[in-house]
Amino acid sequence: METGEDSSKYPYVSALCMNGGDGDKSYSANSLIMRRVLSITKPVLVKNTKEMFANLDFLESVKVADFGCSSGQNTFLVMSEIVDTINLLCQERNQKQPEIECCLNDLPSNNHRS
């Protein structure tokens, strides 16, 4: 993990960084507990997404953001569930599905390409 300038300016950054890649110590290989939590909380996510869109008549575009995401599949589980819920609501209402922009953001030193 390379934190570069961040680690000298902000010493806590190295403690918050995730290990990229697919190795034994990577976040991806050690995120089963988080995946289980996501699975358990899925009904709450779906319910809250539906409630947010219940009073909206028509949307041309929607932005969904995850501030604090990391590498691995868990990042995409939440986003895909939100997107699926929005698309299902549009189908139920016979509305055109909006353009959905997903923004994934984390510490600059967390490399999602590794």
UniProtKB/TrEMBL annotation:
Protein known as: Uncharacterized protein
GO biological process terms on file: methylation
UniProt source species: Brassica campestris
Pfam families: Methyltransf_7 (PF03492)
Listed InterPro entries: MeTrfase_7, MeTrfase_capping, SAM-dependent_MTases_sf
One example GO MF annotation: metal ion binding
Transmembrane as UniProt keyword: no
PANTHER family recorded: S-ADENOSYL-L-METHIONINE:CARBOXYL METHYLTRANSFERASE FAMILY PROTEIN
